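Read as chain and fold; for instance:
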Amino acid sequence: MRDCSKECQRGAAPDRWLDGLDAMVAELHAGQRFCCSQTVLAIGMRRLGIDDPDLLRAMEGFCGGACDGACGALAGGAALMGLYLGKGTEREPRSETIRQYVKELTETFCAYWKGTTCESIVHGEAELRKRICPNVIAGAVEMVWSILGEHGLDLDRRRIDRMPRQ
């Protein structure tokens, strides 16, 4: 399904989750009819063992370029990075690196897909959207995991899982 598997992985070690990525995209995007942003986040949530429909509901605001045209898969990728690194409670510190990592994601995404908006990727063509969007979704997930992995994050645990309890 996806056509960016080698280029999207920026030299990261093999990841067993990528073996089932196309099937997860098909199940969530086509089967359960989640949009691009929801699908990217849902895949990350599965990996982290998170079951929270409210997070997926919140991602619907980024579907189909609804946020000033930004590709939902890219928005989902940024949200996925936030899920790994972001501040979620009063006691948690803000991530000092998330902006850098999201910038890396955006640059990698733009270089590969030649843009960051739905329009620049699928040019408003419904048939092209059906063919390309599953690849863009899988590519965004690969890019997120590659970037986080390159920076030494354990992709099977969130940052808060590693923080000492107070």
The chain has a mean pLDDT of 88. The radius of gyration is 15 Å. The chain is about 60% helix and 0% strand. The CA atoms of residues 87 and 93 lie 6 Å apart.
